[in-house]
Amino acid sequence: MRAIIPVAGVGSRLRPHTFTVPKVLLNVAGKPIIGHIMDKIIAEGFDSATIIVGYLGDLIKEYIIENYKIKVDFVEQEERLGLGHAIFLSRHTISKDPILIILGDTVFDVDLGKMINSEYSTIGVKEVSDPRRFGVAETNNGFITKLIEKPEHPTSNLAIVGLYFIKHPDVLIDCLKENIKRNVRTKNEYQLTDGLQAMIERGEKLTTFAIEGWYDCGKPETLLDTNKHLLHETQTSVIPEGVVVRPPVFISPKAIVKNSVIGPFTTIADGARVEESIIRNSIISENATVENALLDDSIIGSNALIKGGFKRINIGDSSELEYY
Predict the structure, then answer these.
(1) What is the pTM of this model?
(2) CATH superfamily of the domain spanning 2-221
(3) pLDDT tens track for 201-228
């Protein structure tokens, strides 16, 4: 079975980090976001994937090729014209066999096996208090009757969370083709929800699949929340001498940590160096250096340098920050 993973977005809400690194390569719990997604689909038996790249796409290709052996087709989305447009661009990699579409900036704790064994096409949803920020699904007798992208006055609290199992992808592609031909846009983009709605109007039956474990990585605060969740499933095998660890944490075996207190909920990535510091609920990215600092709720970008102070910091790649 094939997974379709759109990752072409710029990730503007995660700047400054995404000026130099695509959002899906940001590290949570010891590996990039897309690494968690790839591990999940491979564990569920998927043998091929289509990854739709755009912004800094070569870095994503390099990571996938170096770390995964399953068949992967890369599709370039040069113009970001919406999720529906992205899926349509990947049509040459899609057969009539069922597909799973999974958004690349979200980590799911879900039984994919149960989802893909559904009798009908099904869409992952979660009840939320403010559905206006999401696409929403209206249902009747267990089937979706209407899909609406970010409604001003929602009549349902079932938010679409970015996981779609499509039994008849050829029908979806035909609906997206028709929408693009007729220039059917919502919020100036070709939306996947509009393509799925067209499928419903053609008689396709779609159901919802409740997902409780849905972890967004689109903003600094949600990235840290996702890191916190995933660390509960991660074990640091070696604790450096002279370091106090308050689990859960992830310390890369390729990192150097000395005379520090680490955790809880802290990731220290490959090549990072931490000395004489206390760090909690934070992500220290690849090759960053932290010395004589107390950090909380912080994201430190790759190759950044932090020296001294008690701060909450969100600092991008190759930056320097010193306190005296």
Answers:
(1) 0.87
(2) Spore Coat Polysaccharide Biosynthesis Protein SpsA; Chain A (3.90.550.10)
(3) 999 999 999 888 888 777 888 889 889 9
